[in-house]
Specification:
By secondary structure, this protein is α+β, with helices and mostly antiparallel strands. It is built from 1 helix and 5 strands; from the N terminus they run βββββα. Strand 1 and strand 2 form a beta hairpin.
């Protein structure tokens, strides 16, 4: 009998220490912030988006970071 696999989701969340946006995978319980190194417990994190697609999560993250910097998508070319 196989163990039931939890469906993988890509999460966009913020670090509780530095408030920067980052990506995580829902199957994991924790994630280290790439900016400040803090260990983030995903069950307690503020999650902005949940997606089954890595590409969709990346685009959400990109838009959040752009908004945070005061930019607008019309003025910037997304690569």
């Amino acid at each position: 009998m196989q163990a039931r696999q939890e469906k993988k989701h890509y999460l966009v969340l913020t670090c509780s220490a530095c408030n920067r946006y980052l990506l995580a995978i829902s199957r994991n319980r924790t994630r280290s912030c790439p900016y400040c190194g803090k260990r983030i417990h995903l069950g307690k994190a503020k999650i902005y988006s949940r997606s089954e697609s890595a590409e969709e999560a990346r685009l959400v993250l990109q838009k959040l970071k752009l908004h945070e910097q005061g930019g607008s998508p019309q003025n910037n070319v997304l690569r």
